[in-house]
């Protein structure tokens, strides 16, 4: 079996300016901090990030997560649900320095799931008649432009069309992994991670503990190793 082990210094080889990266976790918990640091150290810029939130600006209040990239102005656009605990993200949005596309959390999850499942989009009643439906944006998929906020009426009820999300790279954190890349994520660290493992063209996971294949009970595997391309071992 080919080793999936990736040294942290090798992460830079998967990066380029302007790329799209999905990051797992909730409020920095479940976001692979060593990989985020490697992204920062690489010098890559103009990133589009897709994830639940922008975590914290001050690491003393909680995991900084992708807040590290925001603070260092490496992010051109965030597709996210919440930036309320990161004042620098708010400042950059208001100053026009970073584009923020806010999504209801369920909508974001469904868009990522649709992208990973090969679906053409999601119809949701969430946001109909609110500012969410007014924030019309064209998205280009395979060279074709689509309006992701079309209103479609089905059986007398209005729905918004939300288009799928995919990424060139998905970065995830796991509490435990085996050498094949089967992942175990505890509690909120699991947030969006299984969906992003499907929606990322390349998936790099960082594990806090790595064990041999067969050590993890199959019923405890939350992300199967077949979806994980590379695994960063503990420092």
Description:
- The strands form four sheets. The chain has a seven-stranded parallel β-sheet with strand order 4-3-2-1-10-13-15. The protein has a three-stranded antiparallel β-sheet with strand order 5-9-8.
- It is an alpha/beta fold.
- It is 20% helix and 28% strand.
- The chain has helices at residues 33-42, 67-71, 87-94, 105-117, 131-134, 193-199; strands at residues 20-23, 47-50, 75-80, 99-102, 122-124, 138-141, 144-147, 151-154, 157-162, 167-174, 176-178, 183-184, 200-207, 210-211, 230-232.
- The longest helix is centred in the middle third of the chain and has 13 residues, at 105-117.
- Helix 4 packs parallel to helix 6.
What's the helix and strand layout?
Layout: E1 20-23, H1 33-42, E2 47-50, H2 67-71, E3 75-80, H3 87-94, E4 99-102, H4 105-117, E5 122-124, H5 131-134, E6 138-141, E7 144-147, E8 151-154, E9 157-162, E10 167-174, E11 176-178, E12 183-184, H6 193-199, E13 200-207, E14 210-211, E15 230-232
Parallel strand pairs: 1-2, 1-10, 2-3, 3-4, 10-13, 11-14, 13-15
Antiparallel strand pairs: 5-9, 6-7, 8-9, 11-12
Helix pairs in contact: 4-6
